[in-house]
Amino acid sequence: MDAEKIVRKVSVISIVFVVLFLVWFLILSPIITFKSNEDKMMKASKRYFEVNSNELPTGRRVKTISLKHLYSKAFLKEDMNVPLTNKSCSVTNSWAKVKRVDGRYKYYIYLECGFMRSMVDHKGPEITLFGNDVVTVNKGSKYNELGVKSVSDNSDGRISPNEVVINSKTVNTKKVGTYEVTYTAYDSLNNKTVKVRKVKVVSRIKNVVKKNTDKLGYYKGDNPNNYIYFSGMLFRIIGTDGTNVKIIADQDVSNVNYDSIDKWLEYYYDHLDNKSKKYIVEDNYCNMKLSDTNTDTTRCSSTTEKKKVYILSANELNKSLVDGNSFLKPVTISWLANKKDDKESYATRNAFYEEDYGKDMLAFDKNYNYGVRPVITIKGSSLVKKGLGTYESPYYLGDVKKAKTNTKLNKRKTGEYFEYANYLWRIIETDNDGTTKVIMDNTVKGDELNVLTFYKTKDKAKIYNPNQRGNVGYFIKNKMSRYLKTDYFVKKDIEVPIYKNSIKYKKEMETKKYKVKLFAPNMYDMFSAFVYNQRDGATMGSYWLINSSKKQYKKALITDIGYITNEDMYDFHEFGIRLCGYMNSDIKVVSGEGTKNNPYKITK
Fold first, then answer.
1. Helices (H), 253-304
2. Is residue 10's pLDDT more than 90?
3. 489: which of 2, 456, 517, 566 fits an S-S bond (Cβ 3.0–4.6 Å)?
């Protein structure tokens, strides 16, 4: 035999030897060790019950002792390790069971050592439920247990569902939350299975409204508990049709001439939070014409096409009245959806005066800029996550989460509140450069009195101009540091709209740009309308607006009774200051919830 063949033969023998060694070392030896451990555990278990014969089960019962118990009672002294390692076998999952079979005791050993496990039935039966593993129940309704459909075991076969122990006592349908119903079953070796069904007790907004309103589903009277926090803003609930829920802004958001309301509402909708928009249902809103003889109607004879947002109709206002009072009647003058004719449309307010005293609505020139309170229809199936419906604790759907610490202000939502320089402010929007346009929630105070000013220029037409001495704009630009710190604001270009005659939405004849830190509100911006706190009677006073007309006595301002005047205002009239500005892009939130009652605290 030549050398080459000898080498080849030796190589083959070596490979076979290595393979046999690996088979022995990695497979046979671990199996032998594992089987030896099973035998040790079996013998230890039998010795245990010889000593503790009083623990042997009777009838069909099964007695189980763990490997840990055998160690603790010293029936096993040597550690049982996972083969080829120093890691111990599981002392809690490994067990010995004994039961009486045909008059004799039979032992079952289950040893778990890493990936090696005894070939004995150690799994509990499989439980199949009627219905879903997660069910939803409306708050206040009864929880009906659907029960167990079937039970099967890999050794015992089918087991009667009647043997499953059901515990549903934890479910409390009077309180919103997620509860667990447990289903417990055993096989003949007492292997246990616990299956869980989650029961979510929820409060759907339509059910909440239906419960708290009249048979028509409308809230009535002056101040019912019907507040809801939506898209970072406070709303009131008008009512439900049984499927969906209609809500209205708590106060006027802006002032708009009637014929431009549809266009302005597009701007408003764009400022709602995207997550909140998913709750909105397009709806047909009542917009029928009225006359002075049928303003008390509760019926609707015509509606709009499908819309995402609209305004209140007279019939809805009338359904809410109790002795002439309604939460839907503002202190300001707010437009209703109803025209009188081509020139006039109806509006409402909390009280009209003189010969109009006691009326719920009046017709006004459609060119007037009066308050707009947007109305939205939301899905009635929306879940109420928290809240009592009160002003202090409004219903909350979970659409807008409060800011986390160190979140930038420019990442927050339109409508949220924050504190700065001892004043309360609201977010209007975030600009592309990261600055945040904001508006003061009140008017500027000096020694606890409203700061007043007037136009001191000789120009006949008083056009808002921050660079002109004697101008309201100049006063705001140069005098506000007396009353508040301006460190967090940045200078930016603003556009001053200038109108030829009447001031109308998107109808300015020209605009002029000025670079300033602070400026007067545009009457068409979010939250530029008068703020009135009905809960404590506090008002904000009058204030100038940035909108300017070239007509001599046509000045844009809001009076201290809450609405834009449509009368001529002369040079000697003084009015207050409400501020807008752009906050630095680096401003961060440090605490708070962004609500009026708990505004954000901020830092630079």
1. 261-270, 274-277
2. no
3. 517
Q: CA 405, CA 426: separation in Å to the nearest integer?
A: 18
CA distances in angstroms from 425 to 48, 337, 539, listed in the order given = 76, 30, 15
536 or 186: which carries more pLDDT confidence? 186
The dihedral sign for the CA sequence 471, 476, 477, 478: positive
DSSP state of 70: H
Structural contact between residues 528 and 439, judged by C-beta atoms closer than 8 angstroms = yes
**Phi-psi sector, 562: left (phi>0), alpha (psi -120 to 50), beta:** left
Are the CB atoms for 237 and 219 separated by under 8 Å?
Answer: yes
pLDDT tens digit sequence for 214-228 = 888 999 998 899 999
Domain spans of the chain? 3-117, 126-202, 212-379, 405-603
Tell me: the pLDDT tens digits for 473-484? 999 999 998 999
- Hey, what are 237's tokens? 């609930």
Report the C-alpha gap between 487 and 429 in whole angstroms.
20
Pairing of strands 575-576, 452-453: antiparallel
| pLDDT score at 242 | 92
Can you name the residues that pair with 228 across neighbouring β-strands? 235, 395
CA-to-CA distance for 4 and 9, rounded, in angstroms?
9
At residue 343, what is the residue type?
A: K
State the number of CA atoms in the 13 A half-sphere of 474 facing the CB: 12
Cβ(177)–Cβ(201) under 8 Å?
yes
pLDDT at 399 over 90: yes
Task: Work out the average pLDDT over 64-82.
Answer: 92
Write out 295-330 in H/E/C secondary structure. Answer: CCCCCCCCEEEEECCEECCHHHHHHCCECCEECCCC
pLDDT at 547: 93
Return the percent helix, strand and coil in the chain, to nearest 5.
Answer: 20, 35, 50
* Residue reference for tokens 């070596």: 14
Report the mean per-residue pLDDT for the chain.
Answer: 92
User: What's the Cα-to-Cα distance from 474 to each of 457, 469, 471, rounded to whole Å?
Assistant: 11, 6, 5
Q: Which residues contact 114 (CB under 8 A, 6 or more apart)?
A: 82, 83, 85, 87, 89
The whole-number average pLDDT for the span 391-399 is 94
3-class SS of residue 246: strand
Select the CATH number that applies to the domain covering 126-202 from these four: 3.40.50.300, 2.60.40.10, 3.40.50.920, 2.30.40.10.
2.60.40.10
Q: Which residues contact 254 (CB under 8 A, 6 or more apart)?
A: 264, 268, 371, 372, 523, 524, 525, 526, 527, 528, 529
Q: Can you give the pLDDT at residue 368?
A: 94
Q: Could you give the 3-state DSSP secondary structure of residue 335?
A: strand
Q: Quickly tell me which residue has 């393979």 as its tokens.
A: 19
Chain-centroid distance, C-alpha 245: 17
**Structural tokens at position 429:** 């929007």
**Tokens (6 digits) for 310:** 């609209």
> Would you state the pLDDT for residue 132?
95
Going by pLDDT thresholds of 50, 70 and 90, the confidence category of residue 453 is: very high
Residue keyed to tokens 């023998």: 13
> Do 171 and 199 touch, CB atoms closer than 8 A?
yes
Return the closest-CA partner of residue 122 out of 24, 195, 193: 193
The answer to whether 412 and 600 have CB atoms below 8 angstroms apart is: yes
Tell me the C-alpha to C-alpha distance, in Å, between residue 210 and each of 242, 289, 504.
7, 29, 40
